[in-house]
């Protein structure tokens, strides 16, 4: 299979070379585009020949390459919020042209941009892509004053959650574990702090986010529903800067500056919450040691070695800590590290080589020290679990000419899973319960051809060949296939040595997207993508918990495969005042995990005996209108969708709604600049309630009232609709030359709605004879927030 | 582990901003099934079995009693059978005031004849360890996990060495009409193959106390430890999950399955819910002084 792919690659290259040889003499202008003020590389900047549709956009590292016929050209660089630049270039040979762009003081540019804006959705090939930069996120109302990456993307069409405080998000009817969340290209396994309230990404260190919901280029794989690509800032390479914020929940501080001006820089950003410190004076005795905090540390350095080589190293460390007295201590978090090397081979060939490390782990500790009576033994219990990845990805881009470019590369990730180790100590006696470690190797090769034969048509097509190997050292379990829905019985086990192959899977994943411009302002788009996923999170609760472990595909767990079809339409109003887009999708998913009734997912060596795999499908229509320029900006997004599954052994084997299905989902995000120093923003969300399984009966048994669902159908009711209004007011202080400060006052859940997160059935705590349906609202009232942000 | 873990997570969220309130929801009336509540023990005196009908969840009235079934307990080991007679809302059998019906090591079959159909379920009485003692300690609210000042009581027992033993601890306040807490254990621990023959671990010992309402001076702590078969333990832990399935990480409502099988000659149609279990019991009580 692999040789075939390389042959295909060879043929493609040859064809393009031949075409190229016949064409007239052409030269390439290439370089990096950076921000004038801070030296940050600028992503997605439109680079085009003025007055024409010839052009390109800068890549994730700010690099562009544009091949034009020999002669004089006027090249323009433009992007929202930046003053456009026009450069006259006389092409007699290949040329290197690095550009620095300046933020425009007003939203309206003074230089008229003629020709296409390449970065606009109407002109790009990608479908199902939403991009937000940090400036846009900062304008949105916040929860407790904190700018939040994950909350921001939840306002985009096609994205929802099971409720506020949910750990994870759902894209186009996919489960929360189907999102590939990348922080500087390293996968992040738990994206939230405080079990869902805050995302783990420090906004001071984030440059931009891209959310891909479909039409995936062949470069992306490993998850079936979405790619959330978060890029960290490089750090100011012009001057030293301090950014910070103090709020009622936590504080942030970041330092950035040049190591050597124009050539190297660093950024170091830290956050810590301090609810527990504020609580401390009120706690006594055993509770004095109560801990309830999280912190994260993000850092990055980059070195421009020479014109053609740049090196980046970035790292992240985040931790949530919960401790109750001295008796219970729990903590969890991600660690990631990425080293990247950008190399420009020729001014038409760009390489990014990424190597990364990612680790998610948790630890729970219990002991009886403070509860121990005289003469009683020490008792303690520790429970740890982790998942570790090592990855390498060389990614090449070959800019053949203005019509053609090729993206190709290889990827490899080695996984180690330590599902759980429990260590109990009693006096002098120690007992250990350790689940077998698991190992996996995921490899992929891909090739994508981006072809724009003319102004109207563009096609990007490619293929990704992915291969996964479930490896030793470990034990493979073999089960009898009994009636679906009942725990499978073990028939045997087999021991495998280190790196010995237990089971392998290979998939060919075709990808294609196409764009056709009806007029310069209207375009239609379509895409198809097959994606596979070899990692699964085991979770049978409403939303995943930080303690839900990940499992690889094994001889018993098949990889998930999704096929997604989309068609879309984009209208970009003349002079770019607003943009309207609509997209319809249909997604078919195989082998999503499900669980038998009363499955045991904790420290269970034979967990595979309790797993089921389902067929799922989702479909929907997404509409979005956005306005990015002027004093009033914002967007409206609406999604009409359905997500459902069928699992043998559950819900009478019938199709049933997924827990994260929402029929309607409407988001309004508006920001208005009252004057230079004051701005007001609001967002309102309305979404249909998520499905729930309700008890229609109770059984009286041994003084209990056991809830029972006599229909045996899963998710047979819906929770009440969800809606919420948030507002915030930003007051900028006097913008002194050095010190810049602003106050942000925010109100979350302005009209104090108690949105139901779950509804469950229980006996009243005070009067057990009373049986009730109980609504749990994670946020039950209006939550105010104050933050003071500063920069000097 | 599950229970502690979830309750801690719920507590953390609750401490944050969450709120719970009872609401009215419109749920279609479900099919009503007969519910078997039969637990035969080694305790002396009358043994009772309840046979009721399932009712809509929020129906506050007690479930209607089925009075026309014929319920027989068969001691398979001793080859004896006992007919449970219906009176005052329950089916009962009285072996004599200080006599016991249940015998450790015996296998039992329960036969229910109802509406022309016949159901049978089996269980065995397993060995039980004695409760050595009950201890307590005064804890102050704000300094400990208790919601108000009071006594946190614990029971002390040692798991029987060799073999896998399943236990169900239930505690009461003052009398057997006031249930306080339940805990389920394997070999004094939560999971199998971790411990054997050692003391019950702290979270199970302390499950005697309701931390929201700790014991007060003068109150009597009653603890009963029952032995279980593996299948009964599995059933009860499922019940426990369903009863405590709330909060941020609420599990899906999953139905608990009954061990009574329809054995009607020629095949039956009716479904039975509930459970037939058997236990040996050790008890201890102590007044807080």
From TrEMBL, chain A:
Gene3D superfamilies, per this entry?
Carboxypeptidase-like, regulatory domain, TonB-dependent receptor, beta-barrel domain, TonB-dependent receptor, plug domain
List the membrane topology term(s): Multi-pass membrane protein
* GO biological process terms held by the UniProt record: siderophore transmembrane transport
State the compartments where it is located. Cell outer membrane
Q: Read off the PROSITE patterns from this record.
A: TONB_DEPENDENT_REC_3
In the UniProt record, the signal sequence range is 1-23
The molecular function terms of the Gene Ontology recorded here are:
siderophore uptake transmembrane transporter activity
Pfam families registered for this protein in UniProt: CarbopepD_reg_2, Plug, TonB_dep_Rec_b-barrel
Superkingdom of origin: Bacteria
Q: Which family does it belong to?
A: Belongs to the TonB-dependent receptor family.
Protein name (database record): Outer membrane receptor protein involved in Fe transport
Its organism's taxonomic lineage begins at: Bacteria, Pseudomonadati, Bacteroidota, Chitinophagia, Chitinophagales
TrEMBL record, chain B:
Q: Which InterPro entries match?
A: DUF4249
Q: What residue range is the signal peptide?
A: 1-18
Q: Which organism is it from?
A: Chitinophaga ginsengisoli
Question: Can you name this protein?
Answer: Uncharacterized protein DUF4249
Pfam annotation, one family: DUF4249
Q: Provide this UniProt record's keywords sorted from A to Z.
A: Signal
């Amino acid at each position: 299979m692999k040789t075939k792919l390389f042959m295909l690659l060879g043929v493609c290259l040859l064809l393009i070379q031949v075409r190229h040889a016949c064409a007239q003499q052409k030269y390439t202008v290439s370089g990096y585009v950076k921000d004038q003020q801070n030296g940050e590389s600028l992503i997605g900047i439109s680079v085009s020949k003025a007055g024409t549709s010839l052009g390109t956009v800068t890549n994730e590292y700010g690099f562009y390459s544009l091949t034009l016929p020999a002669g004089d050209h006027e090249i323009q660089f433009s992007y929202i919020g930046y003053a456009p630049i026009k450069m006259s270039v006389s092409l007699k040979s290949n040329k290197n042209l690095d550009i620095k762009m300046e933020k425009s003081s007003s939203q309206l540019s003074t230089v008229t941009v003629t020709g296409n804006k390449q970065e606009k959705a109407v002109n790009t090939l990608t479908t199902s892509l939403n991009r937000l930069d940090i400036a846009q996120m900062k304008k949105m109302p916040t929860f407790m004053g904190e700018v939040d990456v994950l909350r921001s993307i939840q306002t985009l069409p096609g994205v929802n959650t099971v409720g506020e405080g949910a750990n994870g998000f759902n894209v186009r009817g996919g489960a929360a574990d189907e999102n590939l969340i990348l922080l500087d290209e390293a996968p992040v396994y738990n994206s939230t702090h405080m079990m869902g309230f805050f995302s783990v990404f420090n906004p001071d260190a984030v440059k931009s986010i891209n959310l891909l919901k479909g039409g995936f280029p062949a470069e992306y794989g490993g998850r079936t529903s979405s790619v959330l690509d978060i890029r960290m800032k490089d750090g100011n390479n012009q001057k030293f800067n301090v950014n910070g914020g103090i709020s009622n929940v936590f504080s942030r501080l970041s330092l950035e500056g040049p190591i050597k001006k124009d050539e190297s820089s660093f950024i170091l950003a830290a956050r810590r919450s301090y609810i527990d410190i504020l609580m401390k004076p009120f706690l006594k005795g055993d509770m004095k040691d109560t801990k309830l905090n999280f912190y994260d540390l993000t850092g990055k350095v980059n070195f421009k070695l020479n014109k053609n080589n740049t090196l980046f190293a970035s790292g992240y460390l985040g931790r949530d800590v919960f401790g109750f007295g001295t008796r219970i201590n729990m903590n969890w978090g991600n660690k990631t590290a990425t080293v990247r090397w950008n190399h420009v081979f020729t001014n038409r060939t760009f390489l990014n080589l990424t190597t990364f490390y990612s680790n998610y782990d948790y630890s729970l500790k219990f002991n009886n020290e403070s509860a121990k009576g005289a003469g009683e033994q020490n008792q303690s219990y520790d429970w740890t679990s982790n998942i570790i990845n090592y990855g390498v990805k060389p990614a090449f881009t070959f800019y053949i000419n203005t019509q053609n470019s090729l993206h190709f590369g290889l990827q490899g990730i080695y996984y180690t899973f330590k599902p759980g180790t429990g260590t109990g100590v009693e006096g002098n006696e120690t007992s250990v319960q350790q689940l077998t470690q698991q190992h996996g190797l995921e490899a992929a090769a891909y090739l994508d051809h981006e072809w724009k034969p003319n102004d109207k048509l563009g096609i990007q097509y490619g293929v990704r060949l992915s291969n996964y190997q479930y490896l030793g050292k470990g034990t493979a379990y073999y089960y009898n296939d009994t009636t679906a829905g009942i725990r499978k019985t073990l028939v045997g086990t087999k021991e495998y040595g280190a790196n010995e192959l237990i089971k392998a899977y290979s998939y060919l994943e075709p990808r294609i997207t196409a764009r056709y411009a009806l007029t310069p302002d209207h375009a239609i788009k379509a895409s198809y993508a097959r994606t596979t996923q070899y990692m699964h999170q085991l979770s049978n609760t409403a939303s995943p918990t930080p303690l839900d472990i990940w499992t690889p595909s094994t001889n018993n767990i098949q990889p998930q495969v999704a096929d997604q079809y989309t068609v879309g339409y984009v209208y970009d109003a003349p002079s770019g005042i607003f943009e309207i887009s609509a997209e319809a999708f249909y997604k078919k998913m195989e082998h999503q995990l499900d669980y038998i009734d009363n499955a045991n997912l904790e420290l269970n060596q034979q967990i595979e005996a309790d797993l089921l795999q389902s067929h799922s499908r989702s479909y929907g229509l997404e509409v979005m209108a956005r306005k990015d320029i002027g004093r009033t900006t914002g967007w409206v997004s609406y999604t009409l969708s359905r997500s459902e599954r069928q699992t043998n052994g559950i819900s009478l084997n019938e199709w049933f709604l997924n827990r994260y299905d929402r029929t309607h989902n409407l988001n309004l995000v508006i920001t208005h600049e009252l004057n230079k120093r004051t701005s007001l923003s609001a967002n309102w969300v309305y979404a249909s309630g998520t499905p729930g399984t309700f008890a229609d009966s109770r059984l009286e048994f041994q003084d209990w009232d056991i809830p029972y669902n006599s229909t045996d159908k899963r998710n047979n009711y819906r929770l009440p609709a969800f809606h919420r209004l948030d507002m915030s007011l930003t007051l900028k202080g006097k913008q002194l030359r050095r010190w810049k400060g602003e106050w942000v006052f925010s109100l979350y859940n302005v009209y104090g709605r108690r949105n139901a997160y779950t509804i469950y059935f229980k006996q009243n705590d005070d009067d057990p004879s009373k049986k009730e349906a109980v609504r749990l609202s994670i946020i039950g009232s209006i939550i105010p927030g104050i933050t003071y942000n500063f920069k000097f | 582990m599950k229970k502690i873990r979830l309750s801690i997570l719920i507590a953390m969220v609750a401490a944050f901003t969450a709120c719970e309130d009872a609401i009215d929801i419109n749920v279609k009336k479900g099919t009503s099934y007969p519910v078997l509540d039969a637990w035969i023990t080694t305790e002396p005196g009358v043994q009772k079995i309840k046979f009721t009908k399932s009712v809509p969840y929020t129906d506050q009235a007690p479930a209607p009693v089925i009075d026309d079934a014929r319920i027989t307990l068969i001691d398979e080991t001793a080859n004896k059978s006992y007919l449970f007679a219906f009176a005052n809302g329950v089916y009962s059998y009285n072996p004599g005031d200080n006599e016991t019906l249940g015998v450790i090591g015996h296998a039992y079959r329960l036969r229910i004849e109802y509406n022309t159909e016949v159901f049978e379920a089996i269980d065995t009485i397993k060995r039980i360890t004695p409760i050595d003692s009950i201890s307590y300690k005064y804890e102050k609210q704000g300094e400990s996990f208790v919601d108000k000042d009071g006594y946190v009581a614990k029971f002390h027992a040692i798991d029987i060495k060799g073999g896998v033993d399943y236990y169900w601890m239930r505690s009461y306040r003052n009398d057997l009409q006031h249930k306080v807490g339940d805990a389920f254990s394997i070999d004094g621990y939560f999971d199998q193959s971790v411990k054997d023959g050692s003391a019950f671990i702290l979270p199970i010992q302390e499950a005697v106390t309701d931390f929201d309402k700790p014991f007060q001076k003068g109150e009597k702590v009653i603890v009963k430890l029952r032995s279980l078969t593996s299948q009964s333990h599995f059933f009860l832990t499922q019940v426990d999950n369903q009863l405590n399935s709330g909060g941020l990480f609420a599990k899906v409502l999953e139905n608990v399955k009954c061990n009574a099988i329809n054995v009607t000659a020629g095949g039956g149609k009716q479904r039975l819910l509930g459970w037939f279990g058997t236990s040996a019991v050790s008890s201890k009580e102590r007044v807080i002084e």
